[in-house]
Structures are given as C-alpha cells and as structure tokens.
Amino acid sequence: MRLDDPREEARRVLRLCNVCNYCNGYCELFRAAERHRIFSDGDLATLAHLCHNCRNCWQACQYAPPHPFAVNVPLVLAELRLLSQTELAWPRPIAHLGLLTLAVSLLPVLLVLLLVPGESLFAAHTGPGAFYRVIPWATMSLAAALPLGWSLLALGVGLVRFWRAGGGARGAEMRAACPEALRDAILLRNLDGGGVGCDDGNGLPSFWRKRFHHLVLGGFLLCLASTMVATLYHHWLGLEAPYPVLSLPVILGSLGGLGLIAGSLGLLALKQGADPAPIAPAAVQSGRLLLGQLVAMAASGLVLLALRDSPAMGILLALHLGTVIGFFVALPHGKFAHAPYRAAALLRAALERRNDER
Amino acid sequence: MTPPVPPSPDLPVGAVVVIGGGTAALCAAIAARRAGASVILLDRAPPENRGGNTRHSRNLRIMHCAPSPLFPGSYDEADFHADLTKAAEGAGDEALGRLLIRRSAAVPDWLAAQGVAFQTIACGGLPWSRKTAFFLGGGTAMINTLYATATRLGIDIRHRSHVIGLSRDGAVTLADGAGGTRTVRARAVVVASGGYQANPVWLAEQWGDDAAELIVRGTPFAAGEPLRALFDLGAASVGTPGACHLVAVDGRLTEADGGIVTRVDGLDLGIAIDRDGKRFEDETTITGPTRYAQWGRRVAALPGRIAHAVWDADAVDRVPPAIVEPIRVESLEALAAFLAVPIADLAASAADSGRVTRAPFFTVPIRPGLTFTCYGVRIDDHSRVLTPDGEPLGCLFAAGMIMAPNVIGTGYLAGAALTIGAVFGRIAGEEAAEHALG
C-alpha cells in the first residue's frame, strides 16, 4: 500500500495517524498533524522537521508492516526532510558533498605545504601571534569568513522559503512564541519519547540518544562561544592567539570539543545498532558525514592545542582550519540544515499551540 | 525498579503453561513467573502479529478515588459498578464484578512495575476521560513492553503455537504444522486465548453461511480452538453462542486487524441505505460514543449484511476524516447505477431525509466489523475454570475475553476488556503458580 512519492505517502500515512491518534503522547508531530485535514507541501515540510526521529511511533504502530496499511512514519518523514531540504536549497544542492568537504578540508594542508617555506612551517613557534607566523591572520580570517558568509546566506534563503511555505511570518505573535520554541529546541523535548526515551531498536527505550544529541548541541555552542570570545580578545583586548591553557577561549573550546567528540561518537554508535526499517539510508549517510566532520574538527583542534608548541603545529593548524572550512562549506547542504529547519518547525508548532489556546 | 524474581524452583520446565498472546496471557505469564513458577507462553500468532486484540487497544477502565496524573476526576466503586451493571444488562456475576472493580485500582501500578508507560493528562492530546487510563503509544506499545519484561524474566515464549487440545491434568496438545501433534505437559494451564471471532465455521452455527461477511477487526488468530477444547472437557459456558461486539466499518477494508481506523463515522450527516436503496433508521438519532456499535448491529441484521453511507456536497466536508476518501459520484442517477439500487427508492430516501440534496454525492460501503465474541467459560474468584456443578475443571484456569461474559455478559464497556485481561490475568497467573508449586 506504500506510495512511491514521499509527499503522497506522507499524506496517506498522516491521514491514518490523525484517525488513530494513539501516538499523540509521544511528540509534537502528532499533535501538530491533528490540526490539518489536508496537508499542503509546506505543512508536510514543517511536520517532517517536527519529527526528531525517536522512532517510538514505529515500535508502537499497530499498522506497521506486515500490516497491509504499511505505516512507517519515521521513514517517510526522513525521506520528506531530505526531499524538502533539497528543494529548498539555494542556489542548488551539491552532489558528492562528502568528497567536496574532504577536498576542502585537506586543501589548506596542501597549500601550506606548497606556499609556506619549510623552515617556517616546521619550526616551533611560541608566544602571541605564533599561529599567524604560519598562516597570516588576514588569510585565515578570510578563508573562514567567506565560505561561512556564503553558507549562512544560502541557509537563510532556504529558511525563508521553508517558513513561507509553512504559512509565513506573523510579527508579534511570532515573537511571543519564540521563547517556547527556543525551549523546545534547546531542551530537545521531542526526543523524550513522551517521557520514556527513544527506542533504538533493541526494545529498551533510553535517554542516550537525547544525551548524546545534547552533548553535540552543547559542544557546538561552546565552540561557537570560544570563537566569539577569541574574536573579542583579538579585536578589543589586542590579545593574539594562542591563548594560555587556562584562558576562556581555550577552556570553552576544549570542553566544546570534548562534547562534540563524545556526543558524535555516541550517536554514531547508536546508529550502528539501530533497527534499519524506520531509517532512510540517505539520511544516515548525511548524518554520518556531519558527525564525522564534527569529530574531525574537534579532534584536530584538541591535537593542535596539545602540540601547539611543537614543530607539528603548522600542519595541524592547517588541518584544523581545513576541517572548519569544510564544515562551513557543507552547512546548508548537509545534515546541519536540520537544526535551523527544526527550530523553525518548533516555532510554527508553538505558534499554533498558542492559537489553539485562544 | 521491578521487584526481584524468586528463584525458579526445581520443577520440570513448563510448570505453568499460558495459552494466548494478549494482555491476559502476558499478565498471567508474568504473574506466574513472579510467583516462582517456570512459565511457557504459547501464542498462535507469529512474533510480528503478537499481542492479540490488545494490539488495537488504547485504554483501561480503572476505579480510583482521586484525580491523578492519569485521571482528571475520580471514579469510585459505585460509579464503576453502575456502569458495569448497565452494560451487562444483569447478566454479570455480582461477586466477580466487584472483584474486577476493586482489583482494577491496582492495575496501573502493577503494569507500571512491569515497565508499561501511561500517557499523562499533562502530556496533552488525550480525550477527557475520568474513567480510563491510556497507554503511552497504545496497546501495541504496552504489549512490546510486556513481552520484553516476560523475556527478561525468563518466560519461554513460543510463537506460532497452535493449541488444539487440552486435558484436565495439564496436557496441552499442539498441531505441529505437518498434520501431526505434540504435547506440552504442565502442572497448571491458563487459557487466555480470547474468543472465536476469527473462526467463520464456528460463527456459522448462529450466523449462517455468510458469517464470513463479518469483517474481523482484530487478530486473525482468534479461532477459538482452546475455548472449544474447554467445552469438550465439560467446562460450563457463560454468555451467548454467536453473540458478539460489532461496529460499522468501511466495507472496502476487509482484511483482519483493521483496528479502530476502519470505522465509519458521520452517518448522522447523511443517510444510510440498505442494498435496495432504502433507509432503515433515523440516522440523526444514532449518536454518542456507542454510535459505531449501534450501526454495526443494525447493518449485521440487514439482508446481505451491507449498507451504504451517502453524503451530499454540503455535508461531506463535515464528515470526520477517514483513512480512505469516500467514493464520489456526480448525480443521484450515477449513484443508483453504481450501487445497483432502483433510482426511485434512492431518490425517495434522499428526499425523505432532507440531508442529501446537492451534487456531487459521496458514498462508502458499510459492513459489520467483528471485535470479539461474547461466549466463554465460567470461572470462580480464583480464575479456575468450572464445570456446570461448580467444581474446578482440573488444573485449568482462564483469563481475559474467554471469561469476560462472567462479568459483562454480552455487553460492551469501553476499556473494560483490557481491565478484565489485566485483573483476571494476574489472578489466574498467581493462582496457577500456587497450584503448580503447591
């Protein structure tokens, strides 16, 4: 009974879910779907991003295959997320994202090997400005800022399209719903599985997925904070990197890096043992790419920290810079895009909840 | 945390055999295991279809004295007793009914101790219900949890076990799938295999040859062989042969296990006609939570056991959403041709109702959907199967829908079936363990 077109299949399945309703204790998706009798393409994109892929509804479904109704909500919504992200992408989706990011990540290493004289590249530099004696500050800043700026623009365009397709903005109402949506996004409330955690396929729900996801999210935010503090140090206080081990940028970055590594490896391990039936293979692939990038970025940063006084610093710096640029390049085209889209979907749901209460 | 399990005593494997795979069977198996018996669970279904009719359930009816995270109000013994008495129309056993009601109060905590999660009111999304508690994710989620717990406790679960015979002393005969039989011996047997709603041959005894026209809404494995075996051994019956719970379902969805999403609703917004195009009921008078069952009974009594819902263009948008769109036809003439009914009768039906006027028109075939049969074995307050003399029938116990008519006759009360399964499942399991170990 499964339909080939993900959107038609999602309409068929969510229509059935709205009649059944048994899963509406699990997450916001089912409570949001109940507000629709017909589902526009924009509604479907929003609903797809409300799904946090806990898969409890798959385990609990009385209509899952081999039942002829063949309901598989997490699978069709994962396919729909991929489809809508591809369609919303601007300027257009990138093929072979994995290869591209790998190439971008390794490019700075190649460039320093070619362009920086060996006696400088493999010398032990110490003291303020040590990094910039290998890669000048302006070069480093530009190499990071340009792809980041471009990617944020692309992500912004996609997000605006997503928001408009889901029903558009509503000024003051939207602002009022923001705190609630932010809380749902930061706390990952929809990964609670209705209070029991998520089942990764072994029949025993747990909160590990949520914990690992929180480690990734927290680690990412700490690294972001580290970079921002370092920028302030550089411009306002005139302090040049590398910073002492007990300085704010290093402490924030180290904790963030450890969080990213622990969380990403945890999520990768959970993917390994998961029941394949409710999972879209392409989504797993893009998830692995992002997690791999995060691990590479964090690990290269931590190794750089450990060996920054040694002759290996130059190469490690280039490698770390490369992983960061690779991450920036992939931002709007890979798994990372789920974060802003999900936040927007949570905002839409918070808006509609407030409308219901009126 | 769940309490520790007493060490397994030095008994042959299968001290207690439980037959069935739904709430009553799982509760009996877990209770017997926790009481110290070794337990084998024999379920007719393959693992992917496990859970009996519980797969399609969502809530249980619970006595409770105060509001709680699960209930917005209270529901005391007198309230529950009044509802049960009304539903049973006087056919229920007073003492067993009281037992059900009083023991229901402990069911949520007991199930929670087995790992079962309930949906709280705070979670949102629930219909207001002071009488019933809802499983988080519904009956299939509960069943998954109970199977996981049963496995952890060391209960030997054997799917695709087709029980065809029983004896008073605990010999259970299974079909081996190759035309032969094999036997499992137990010191006590709990029969929790439900009714015989998926057995058209047995149903034909009262329903005639077109019993197969009744659409099985639940598990297709409820063929009732263990029930028949109990009668063959001389068990006393309760309920009425052929009596069953019926609801109106979409006649295009004829496969078993349709559960709750195949029901037809919104008939009060249009008309219901029989196979000759004539109305048989004032549709607007059939409302409230029992409307599906009222329509099910009426359609089952019609010639051909079929009816058709018809709505017009103004009404169709107000009909509650269904999983399959109604069939659209552009005129009454086209509808008459499509349904093969005389246009004059159809036009008269539409005109008389005053609700079916503007084209296009929309129609859905309605069939009776069969939830469960209301015919089972008499038990005592230890869940022992009784003979007509009131004597226990060997080491045989019964729980769940196979004994439900003891308390509810041939009636229906939302959420009561699950409570009967949980309460008498636990009683039967504990008593069977005591019988086996004693």
TrEMBL record, chain A:
Residue ranges of the TM segments: 94-115, 135-160, 215-236, 248-268, 289-307, 313-332
Coiled coil: none
Keyword tags: Membrane, Transmembrane, Transmembrane helix
InterPro entries assigned to the protein according to its UniProt record, in alphabetical order: Citrate_utilization_prot_B, NarG-like_sf
Organism: Magnetospirillum fulvum (Rhodospirillum fulvum)
Protein's name according to its UniProt entry: Citrate/tricarballylate utilization protein
UniProtKB/TrEMBL annotation, chain B:
UniProt KW keywords: FAD, Flavoprotein, Membrane, Oxidoreductase, Transmembrane, Transmembrane helix
Residue ranges of every copy of the FAD-dependent oxidoreductase 2 FAD-binding domain listed in the record: 16-416
Transmembrane domains' residue ranges: 12-32
Keyword set includes Transmembrane: yes
Co-factor(s): FAD
Protein name, entry field: Tricarballylate dehydrogenase
GO molecular function: oxidoreductase activity
UniProt key word Metal-binding: no
